Amino acid sequence: MTTQTLLEVRDLSVDYVRDRQLVTAVAGVDLDVRAGEVVGLVGESGCGKSTLARAVVGLLPRAGGTVTLDGRPAREVGRSARPVHDRRLQMIFQDPYASLNPRRRVGRQIADGLPHSLTGPAARSARVGDLLVAVGLDPEVAGRYPHEFSGGQRQRIAIARTLAAEPSVIVADEAVSALDASTQAQVADLLLDLVRSLGMGLLFISHDLSVVRRIADRVAVMYLGRIVESGPTAQVWDRPQHPYTSALMAAVPRLGRDAELPRALTGEVPDPASPPEGCRFSTRCPRVAAPCHVDDPVLLPVGTGHLAACLLAGATGAGPDDGRPLSLTPRTLPADDRHPTRKS
């Protein structure tokens, strides 16, 4: 049985102007989030993850593309009141202290997100208590202020406030990165439990691959404004098809019998205002070939539900330089895909 797709992002682009020059921070991204599913989005700092998150929920203007929630267009946030339908797309920010009002009691802030149909102080207070219990807090804390809580507790309050709007999809932008390791695991597990029990979708954005591997059903890898690989988490981890994905994994320390020190990816991320010709990763790729400087690869299937935007994907040893042989014969792309252009 096919799981319902709650969030559809198609050809999404985000531009901004820097020093009178147009910069494309997100360049034609496609993304789906289904009911009861966690989709992890990973990549280096500056690759466009947070920009994509804010554009999806409508906090940043979209230069192109569409965002569809439950089969209906999700509009950008404006000065007028947000439509009820769009309120079902919510966001959790990295710093819960910055996203909570320090001068208001947390119970009142959670109540702000409750639907207008829930009337009466008693009913709203009871619902706030239920939400606090759902995130592992005592209902009695509703009368306290944000500074009276730890970082992990504040993030739980932020999650409760998000749940108050009865969302169908939550976008979590580095929601656990500001927490210590043990609290990270607890909050990540809480989000996973909520997704499974409530049938929501979760787009979980993080630079911590270990957390993403722990909770994500599917993962998308982003580089310089584009998705370069996506697929079921186990497939992407066990057999990465893009050298950038392999490099990210090599930078994670390994413990136990296969203990290995992390290997940092060399080189600087190119300026998004002037990306390299051909493959955007060609300036840092350890196995770049001549065609990589000419052809701009698009996402193509490399397995069941597994896509990669690499001319060498599917070749033996298409990951980082680990001593294995590599065929430098690029995949044959359809004529229309060899030089893709962004849709208007």
Topology, element by element:
Blueprint: E1 5-18, E2 21-34, E3 37-42, H1 49-57, E4 64-69, E5 72-73, E6 89-92, H2 96-99, H3 106-111, H4 121-134, H5 151-164, E7 169-173, H6 181-198, E8 201-205, H7 209-215, E9 218-223, E10 226-232, H8 233-238, H9 243-250, E11 300-303, E12 306-308
Parallel strand pairs: 3-8, 3-9, 6-7, 7-8
Antiparallel strand pairs: 1-2, 1-4, 4-5, 9-10, 10-12, 11-12
Helix pairs in contact: 4-5, 5-6
Key words describing this protein structure:
single chain; 344 residues; alpha/beta; Rossmann fold; 2 domains; 9 helices; globular; disordered C terminus
Describe this structure in words.
The chain has 344 residues and is an alpha/beta fold. The protein folds into two domains: 5-216, P-loop containing nucleotide triphosphate hydrolases (Rossmann fold); 242-344, no CATH class. The protein has nine helices and twelve strands. It has helices at 49-57, 96-99, 106-111, 121-134, 151-164, 181-198, 209-215, 233-238, 243-250; strands spanning 5-18, 21-34, 37-42, 64-69, 72-73, 89-92, 169-173, 201-205, 218-223, 226-232, 300-303, 306-308. The strands form two sheets. It has an eight-stranded mixed sheet, with helices on both faces. Strands 2-1-4-5 form a four-stranded antiparallel sheet. A hairpin with a 2-residue loop joins strand 4 (64-69) and strand 5. The longest helix has 18 residues, at 181-198. It is globular, with a radius of gyration of 21 Å. Mean pLDDT is 87; it is low at 316-344.
